[in-house]
């Protein structure tokens, strides 16, 4: 198949999933065209079946807001026409579903089919904003196929938008060879002493991630078990979290590593991964840590229970239960048998339910179904 993939190229789960999916499809012989304003962050390696088409948004004195979405639609239509695409697969409904529909309209009856993958905040936050609600609903309704990354997100989309489209659940995935315990960064000593434990958090540091809770959980854990906290990512809450760590006298224990591309190496060094988000439609970073054999402590919210099996691969507690999450983390860290058992169960669950191979096949089958319809 010839597939045009559009996603946000910035660091984030939806861009990561889009890039990994494109790479797997290319290895299977499909011709993949990424269409975005920048190279997606996980797309580094060259592959003969992958091309990248940059969207240029010209600025003009009249444009206080340069019309990125129109430039993207025009580029999608151009690539589809020149490369005879069969399919547009867009990730994140806003604005990509509507932009994809516009590109289809420009192309007329020869247009590729349009598949939209819903990732989470496009439905749970942005789509619920009054100014975006109708347009998000429109984009979803106009798509020829819609997938969601969890059952939770599928149900929420159906409930909130009252739409009639079928929505296929295809969970996010990891490549078990890329995310595995043996790929841990070799110099653990650069981060922690042998007697110290490593707690880890990875996100885009947006309010929905509750990263102040991460620091507060760490404060409590560190009083019981000597530990360090690694914070990977960038975003609007970083400065406040750093200030909180300073105020709590933890500056030398909490290390902000900024954006990192090789997160598997870091994840595999950790003893526990913390994800106390307000809401997570899936929680890709939790899955990546599980695949590295690391138990997860986080919130019992959204699609998290589809990823983390409470009591088996970690613990899920009510949103904001900092005390509970700290207590569960301490329990894991104080009991090497439990940590080992939960780490093994995490790796096994990640491999069993979320391996790339079968899930990429699900996407291929879904493409064929939509193309045949
Ligand atoms: O977390 C975000 O706000 C960003 C968003 C994204 O674009 O990466 O994340 C969402 O999509 C990920 C990939 O499908 C999911 O793993 C995240 O759970 C989801 N985030 C939220 O639902 C908050």
Secondary-structure blueprint:
Layout: E1 2-6, H1 13-27, E2 31-36, E3 50-54, H2 68-83, E4 87-91, H3 93-107, E5 113-118, H4 121-124, H5 130-142, E6 145-148, H6 151-161, E7 168-169, E8 197-202, H7 211-224, E9 227-232, H8 238-247, E10 254-258, H9 263-267, E11 272-275, H10 284-291, E12 296-299, H11 304-307, E13 314-317, H12 322-334, H13 336-354, H14 356-372
Parallel strand pairs: 1-2, 1-4, 2-3, 4-5, 5-6, 6-7, 8-9, 8-11, 9-10, 11-12, 12-13
The protein binds ligand GMT.
Name the overall outline.
globular
State the helix count. 14
What value does the Rg take, in angstroms?
Answer: 21 Å
Our estimate of the beta-strand percent is 15-25%
Bound molecules: ligand GMT
Physical arrangement of strands within the biggest beta sheet:
3-2-1-4-5-6-7
CATH fold name of the largest domain, please? Answer: Rossmann fold
The low-pLDDT segments are none
Structural class: alpha/beta
- The CATH architecture category of the largest domain equals 3-Layer(aba) Sandwich
How far apart the termini lie comes to: 16 Å
